[in-house]
From TrEMBL:
<feature type="transmembrane region" description="Helical">
    <location>
        <begin position="273"/>
        <end position="299"/>
    </location>
</feature>
<dbReference type="InterPro" id="IPR003838">
    <property type="entry name" value="ABC3_permease_C"/>
</dbReference>
<dbReference type="Pfam" id="PF02687">
    <property type="entry name" value="FtsX"/>
</dbReference>
<dbReference type="InterPro" id="IPR025857">
    <property type="entry name" value="MacB_PCD"/>
</dbReference>
<dbReference type="InterPro" id="IPR051447">
    <property type="entry name" value="Lipoprotein-release_system"/>
</dbReference>
<dbReference type="Pfam" id="PF12704">
    <property type="entry name" value="MacB_PCD"/>
</dbReference>
<protein>
    <submittedName>
        <fullName>ABC transporter permease</fullName>
    </submittedName>
</protein>
<keyword id="KW-0472">Membrane</keyword>
<feature type="domain" description="MacB-like periplasmic core">
    <location>
        <begin position="37"/>
        <end position="219"/>
    </location>
</feature>
<comment type="similarity">
    <text>Belongs to the ABC-4 integral membrane protein family. LolC/E subfamily.</text>
</comment>
<keyword id="KW-1003">Cell membrane</keyword>
<feature type="transmembrane region" description="Helical">
    <location>
        <begin position="320"/>
        <end position="347"/>
    </location>
</feature>
<feature type="transmembrane region" description="Helical">
    <location>
        <begin position="31"/>
        <end position="57"/>
    </location>
</feature>
<keyword id="KW-1133">Transmembrane helix</keyword>
<keyword id="KW-0812">Transmembrane</keyword>
<feature type="domain" description="ABC3 transporter permease C-terminal">
    <location>
        <begin position="276"/>
        <end position="401"/>
    </location>
</feature>
<feature type="transmembrane region" description="Helical">
    <location>
        <begin position="374"/>
        <end position="393"/>
    </location>
</feature>
Length: 408
């Protein structure tokens, strides 16, 4: 009774030797080596560009997030009915969430005038001590004025109004005051207590802060009843549902990401589109891997046929060309990673590219490549390289030694 023939495992030493031979420069077929080099350079360039581009997109998104997180506040409670946000609600929330910081506010629109310049603004009435605990930009700008009629304004508004710290500006409110037999908009001179710089010109030109007492005095706002409540927390996404469950029906809560949802959704879509477009660079480079391996197969047909007649199996032939493609691709990935890391280091260390701060919120190019994006780049590139190496390897393994040797 005969035993079935044992299938021998591929000879790895033989495979490695042939791969080393095929990686050398061939004087008779220089275009094969050039094609392989182009594939290597294309993949390296694709990985490098993807790393830098994703790093810039992430850095820009984080920079905008940081600015908007401060100026829009992590969480905001808004009333649906008059007097719904009051000291009683704040005291209840403080008791249930002692780790959170709260800053109640009044708000209204005003016209700011000084030195012949006029600008529409949004003014918040806040408790300066409470606001300083949740708004680092406001805290840094606040001065030492004790008057209730003091304002902290943005750098852009200060420049347009020619109103530095210590200067006075006139605020015109929508409320009317009696003058003789007629009326005119309520106006009041405020002293500039400080000038803040958020990094976003739109905010610096449009927002100012004054005291709660100024609102109560000028606009007859009810003490202890507010237009809204700003809440600071390190984890607003985790806290918002817990806070919402404790709120009465006449108020709503929203996060800073909801106030700017369309903006960040657009940035996320742009990031995905950029990733797919730049991945095409690697896809094009992978075509060079296919062409290089196919040219190698065609030029080495006699050698492949001879190896088959001497005992090399289809699996070994397939492994030779598959690994050859992987070597070209993986070395391209390594080189691209090193170049991308070098490029990111240069951009973050040296001020090579400067940007208009009024548009982007920062004058230095922000670069921050996350591990998730880096992993996605490596995964996408690896899949393309694997698929590119499969077809030439399969084609080489299908070489018929009898047909090749007969024709030769």
């Amino acid at each position: 009774m005969s035993t079935p023939a044992r299938i021998s495992s591929p000879n790895t030493k033989f495979i490695r030797h042939i791969i080393k031979h095929y990686l050398k420069y061939d004087k008779e077929n220089p275009f094969i080596f050039i094609s392989a080099m182009l594939a290597f350079l294309g993949i390296a360039a694709g990985v490098m560009v993807l790393m830098i581009a994703m790093g810039i997109m992430n850095g820009t998104q984080k920079e905008f997030t940081k600015k908007l997180f401060v100026m829009n506040y992590p969480l905001t409670i808004l009333p649906l009915e008059e007097n719904a946000v009051n000291d009683t609600l704040i005291a209840s929330l403080k008791e249930q969430f002692p780790h959170l910081q709260f800053s109640p506010y009044y708000t209204t629109q005003v016209i700011t005038k000084n030195d012949g310049a006029v600008q529409g603004s949004l003014v918040y009435g806040v408790d300066f001590d409470k606001e300083s605990k949740i708004n680092a930009i406001f805290k840094e700008a606040t001065g030492h004025e004790t008057s209730k009629f003091r304002v902290v304004i943005g750098e852009g508004l200060s420049f347009e109004m020619n109103a530095p710290k210590g200067e006075k500006v006139t605020l015109y409110f929508s409320e009317q005051q009696a003058i003789g037999f007629g009326t005119m908009p309520l106006q009041k001179r405020f002293i500039v207590d400080g000038v803040f710089k958020s990094g976003l010109k739109a905010y610096d030109k449009a927002i100012m802060y004054t005291s709660l007492e100024a609102f109560e005095k000028l606009l007859d706002r009810k003490h202890g009843s507010y237009d809204g409540l700003h809440i600071y927390t390190e984890n607003p996404l985790d806290e918002i549902d817990a806070i919402r469950s404790e709120l009465p029906e006449m108020v709503v809560i929203e996060g800073w990401w909801q106030q700017n949802g369309n903006f960040f959704a657009a940035m996320e879509m742009e990031k995905k589109a950029l990733f797919l477009v730049l991945l095409l660079i690697i896809l094009v480079a992978s075509l060079n891997i296919i062409s290089s391996l196919l040219m190698t197969v065609m030029s080495r047909r006699r050698e492949i046929a001879l190896m088959r007649t001497l005992g090399a199996t289809k699996v070994e032939i397939k492994a030779i060309f598959f690994r050859l493609g992987l070597i070209i691709g993986s070395t391209g990935i390594v080189a691209g990673t090193l170049l991308g890391g070098l490029g990111i280091w240069i951009l973050t260390t040296f001020d090579i590219i400067s940007m208009p701060a009024d548009v982007y919120g920062t004058s230095k190019l922000p670069v921050d490549l996350t591990f998730n994006d880096f992993g996605l780049i490596i995964l996408g590139t690896s899949i393309i390289i694997l698929l590119s190496a499969l077809y030439p390897a399969k084609k080489a393994s299908q070489t018929d030694p009898l047909t090749v040797l007969r024709n030769e």
